[in-house]
Amino acid sequence: MDVLSHALWGATIIRKKPLVWYAALFGALPDILGSGPGFLYLLVVRGIIWGTDTWQLMPEWTHDAYHLSHSLLGIAIVAIALACVGRRKLVLLVTYAFHVAIDLATHVTDPLARLLFPFVPWDAAHVIGMNWWESWWIIAANAGALLAVNMLLWRQKRTLPDR
Questions:
Q1: Residue 109: helix, strand or coil by DSSP?
Q2: What is the pLDDT of residues 58-74, one digit of tens each?
Q3: Alpha-carbon span 104 to 82, nearest angstrom
Q4: Which helix (H) or strand (E) holds 23?
Q5: Which pTM was predicted?
Q6: Average pLDDT, the chain
Q7: Could you give the CA distance from residue 109 to residue 102 in angstroms, rounded to a whole number?
């Protein structure tokens, strides 16, 4: 899914005021950590902002960073970092892991190799799924789900008495 949707899902999942902006950040963090350095490299070194085959133009190390940030090992590294900051912040791991789960369903991938990167090699025979950017209905379903969940939560908040 796109980075903005991941951030919105993060803010939807964790709605508490002091954490909502962090939740949005951690919802988008796998893409920021994984693709951010590659996009920065393309901009600074090659003068490319965006275009077709952007992913293919990135150096191989950025692909590895992307796969690591979307793996169970990446989730574990973020969990350790959050635990060092403070146990109360560990709740942000939910939005990070939710991002990884959504991307398993909205990217053509080998799920086992993606989750267990770098320990399991990628195998083209196990590729499944659809790319969200190639399917308008995935984008529409995501936007509809975000809208519906947020409307339900807003309505629930309005009908519940303050405590």
A1: strand
A2: 888 998 999 999 999 99
A3: 23
A4: helix 20-41
A5: 0.88
A6: 90
A7: 12
